[in-house]
Amino acid sequence: MQTIFVMVKCELGKAYEVAEEAMSADHVSEVYSTSGQYDLLMKCYLDERTDIGHFVTSQIQTLAHVKDTFTIITFKAFA
Length: 79
Description:
By secondary structure, the protein is an alpha+beta fold. The chain has one domain (2-73): Alpha-Beta Plaits (2-Layer Sandwich), CATH 3.30.70.920. The chain contains two helices and four strands. The protein has helices at residues 15-23, 52-60; strands at 2-10, 28-33, 40-46, 66-73. The protein is globular, with a radius of gyration of 12 Å.
């Protein structure tokens, strides 16, 4: 299992709609609202064989009202 975080920039006023839709997407575990350059932070768990780029471009970037994404790939959890 690999964990990635995807920061999402939404169209103005649409963050809550994007968050609701993202929660129904496969592999999205948690969605947080954030301040700063991005509106949402999504925690996703992917199978080791899953192509991260394909997942982000086909499952996250295609959500309605998403303008931009920034993906963080993790290596090890220290918890």
